[in-house]
Amino acid sequence: MVYSQRRSPGSRRLLLSLLLFAVWEAGSGQVHYSVLEEVKHGTFVGRIAQDLGLELAELVPRLFRMASKGHRDLLEVNLQNGILFVNSRIDREELCGRSAECSIHLEVIVDRPLQVFHVEVEVKDINDNPPRFFRQEQRLFILESRIVDSRFPLEGASDMDVGVNAELRYKLNPNEYFDLDVKANEEETNILELVLKKAVDREEIQEHLLLLTAIDGGKPELTGTVQLLINVLDANDNAPKFDKSIYNIRLLENAPNGTLVIKLNASDADEGINKEIVYLFSDLVLDNVKSKFIIDSNSGEITVKGELDYEDCNLYEINIDAVDRSSFPLTGHCKVIVKLLDENDNIPEMVITSISLPVQEDASVGTVIALISLSDRDSGLNGQVTCTLSPHVPFKLVSTFKNYYSLVLESALDRESVANYELVVTARDGGSPSLSTTASMYVEVADVNDNAPAFAQPEYTVFVRENNPPGCHIFTVSARDADAQENALVSYSLVERRVGERALSSYVSVHAESGKVYALQPLDHEELELLQFQVSARDAGVPPLGSNVTLQVFVLDENDNAPALLPRPFRVALYTGEISTTRTLDEADSARQRLLVLVKDHGEPALTATATVLLSLVESGQAPKASSRVLAGAAGAEAALVDVNVYLIVAICAVSSLLVLTLLLYTALRCSAPPTEGACGPGKPTLVCSSAVGSWSYSQQRRQRVCSGEGPPKTDLMAFSPSLPPGPIGDMSEQQDLNDEHCAKVSLDFHN
């Protein structure tokens, strides 16, 4: 920056102390600092980390960063000590122009958890701009006939600074003819007029050279100068005169071309051609003013010529000269100040800065999604902007500072219900009618692993025929995961267990990706009728989630086993016909046995007879109950059997006399029955019992015996408990009662 050489050492010390001044305050959710413009690189602004309540050690881990709309490199933060400092040259006039307030708005963002802070750094003005005149020389023409106290308008200076640094005062170099008069206008502009305090004489001095100096109110003061060149003319007596020296006009911006601004009226007391007036823009009028307005030289009407934009310039000063048509014209002067009125002609501007996109579906309520900054070039109500969000979304807008909003999460998200949102943000100003702008924002919800794979049903029943080929596909399990990407990748595995003496994995396997279940070996219904196991489905999330399903595999029987003869637990003596047991009988043996006995002779051809033996097994200690009728019937049958045998022997003897010796020998053997065959006398049957080999025992070590008795040709052998006393044999019709009382009954039928 450039300063006047007239600065004193004391002023330099004062400036240095001001440069080191920075103030912060907390309020309305923000931190406020101030810094002087044009300070050198590295100048301390504030301890931003401490003022925001952040620890120095967490600045880097929490990704401390700072954002500023359009001014990113002006300020910087030292992450080692948390100090905010000036990083590059700050020119207040470049940042804010002539605005009374000038601030740099910063947004400080830290993660884990996400926090957003608003920091305002006010840029203080220093007196670094001297007053400047638009022209280096101002030329005036004054008639020598002008009376004392005549006034001539002068162009003032401007200062780019603000506040007291832009408050100007003027002084004119000492002289005997002219003085300076400064008036303050209601628009806070100065009206400079050169006042004639002594009549001039062209013949004495044709040209006067003056120096006009503008001095600002800064410390130290800065100045600007302009040369005033005054030419003295011969002229008539009266100059045109306006009824006002200053005209204040208010005009709406965007007024169409041709709109009348004002009709000026000046009068001249002279007569004839000296009274005729021509209206002209003064030489003091700038080119940008001439591009906006035009004056009719005859009528004095000022009309709009170009586009008037309040946001570009809201105040125009037009110096008008009224010149008569004499050979030595006289000029009257006035100033027209046109102040534009703002119209709501600028739509709000909106800038959206995304921070946390995509949004995790498990993000906590209050998470900041994006930052929204609004602006409107209009002023007053027309520049006041509000922001709204489309309804029925789990987000809301929170006003964090003037024209700054944060888009935050209002309620919990579920990606499986809604995977993305299209938000419509509307910015509307306070004008009438209001103007608005909208912006669409696409918010994607990022998946987290919050859903376990799920099967359609908790249990499946599978039927597989036995003797399947090894590796055959028997079933396919399928689980669905509502998550996305790797969180939805499902892999399958067996829940290992023992099946008897073998591991489950030796029977079946499951493909990790397809869920197909394979039988690794042929299944045998006779060995394993039901195979029950579980398959686990697990996703690829971190941490992974899983669930199980139960499979019941029924092995269906096939006719793969040929019938096999089982050893019968009885045997019959070859020559004696005695029936006995070959092993101990137990519970596994059938309670009812049916034996078929074949009797064969040695004749040519051999003759045979068969007998059916029905056995009912009873527990040891139980005795068959025989009624008197049963015993009597048994005795009668035994007597009838003896008679038949006698007749048979006589018949055989008669026939045997005609046969060879062999037949006689056979007849003799047939008739001579040994005592061991159980023949008993009539009315007193003898019980023939099996030996100890013929007994059987249950698991309770109970024992029974099988007994037989003689009778007629159709002999009934009845097995009784050893404790049964002998008695008469009754009628055959009651033998079924013995079966019901666990008595074994043996029937021998001989067929010749």
TrEMBL record:
<keyword id="KW-0812">Transmembrane</keyword>
<dbReference type="GO" id="GO:0005509">
    <property type="term" value="F:calcium ion binding"/>
</dbReference>
<dbReference type="InterPro" id="IPR002126">
    <property type="entry name" value="Cadherin-like_dom"/>
</dbReference>
<keyword id="KW-1003">Cell membrane</keyword>
<dbReference type="InterPro" id="IPR020894">
    <property type="entry name" value="Cadherin_CS"/>
</dbReference>
<dbReference type="InterPro" id="IPR013164">
    <property type="entry name" value="Cadherin_N"/>
</dbReference>
<dbReference type="Pfam" id="PF08266">
    <property type="entry name" value="Cadherin_2"/>
</dbReference>
<keyword id="KW-0472">Membrane</keyword>
<dbReference type="InterPro" id="IPR015919">
    <property type="entry name" value="Cadherin-like_sf"/>
</dbReference>
<feature type="domain" description="Cadherin">
    <location>
        <begin position="351"/>
        <end position="455"/>
    </location>
</feature>
<dbReference type="Pfam" id="PF00028">
    <property type="entry name" value="Cadherin"/>
</dbReference>
<dbReference type="GO" id="GO:0005886">
    <property type="term" value="C:plasma membrane"/>
</dbReference>
<feature type="domain" description="Cadherin">
    <location>
        <begin position="243"/>
        <end position="350"/>
    </location>
</feature>
<feature type="signal peptide">
    <location>
        <begin position="1"/>
        <end position="29"/>
    </location>
</feature>
<keyword id="KW-0677">Repeat</keyword>
<protein>
    <submittedName>
        <fullName>Protocadherin alpha 5</fullName>
    </submittedName>
</protein>
<feature type="domain" description="Cadherin">
    <location>
        <begin position="64"/>
        <end position="133"/>
    </location>
</feature>
<keyword id="KW-0130">Cell adhesion</keyword>
<dbReference type="InterPro" id="IPR050174">
    <property type="entry name" value="Protocadherin/Cadherin-CA"/>
</dbReference>
<dbReference type="GO" id="GO:0007156">
    <property type="term" value="P:homophilic cell adhesion via plasma membrane adhesion molecules"/>
</dbReference>
<feature type="domain" description="Cadherin">
    <location>
        <begin position="157"/>
        <end position="242"/>
    </location>
</feature>
<keyword id="KW-1133">Transmembrane helix</keyword>
<feature type="transmembrane region" description="Helical">
    <location>
        <begin position="646"/>
        <end position="666"/>
    </location>
</feature>
<keyword id="KW-0732">Signal</keyword>
<feature type="domain" description="Cadherin">
    <location>
        <begin position="456"/>
        <end position="565"/>
    </location>
</feature>
<feature type="domain" description="Cadherin">
    <location>
        <begin position="570"/>
        <end position="626"/>
    </location>
</feature>
<keyword id="KW-0106">Calcium</keyword>
<keyword id="KW-0325">Glycoprotein</keyword>
